# Entry
Amino acid sequence: MSENYSRVVVTRLDEAAKIHFVDRNILDESVIQQIGDEIASVIEAADRPKILLDFENVEHLSSAALGTLITVNTKVKQKGGQLRLANIDKQIYEVFMITKLNKLFQIYDTVAAAQKSFQK
# Structure
């Protein structure tokens, strides 16, 4: 696979950056690293980033992917930004509950609900 192949699609929603995952299964270490790098570049490009991660397409996440999400959350907070997660599959959400990550992240059923939650 080409290193130039983007693993995420970034679109603007008002002041927020919506990041949609291309891969259905986020399991491979190199894929997770690339996703982390791509999201980090979006965070670094904003003064106070508003990031909305759209999991609509995602069916499986590895524990390493969860670790990357925690890192992303830390980077967003360090810049005084806001992070929202949306459209998480029920089985993946169960993992968030078991690991108590549902308490760390603000998770919404829809992109619209997540978008409304951003504070000005």
Remarks:
- Helices lie at 29-44, 63-78, 90-98, 101-104, 111-117.
- Residues 75 and 91 are 26 Å apart (CA to CA).
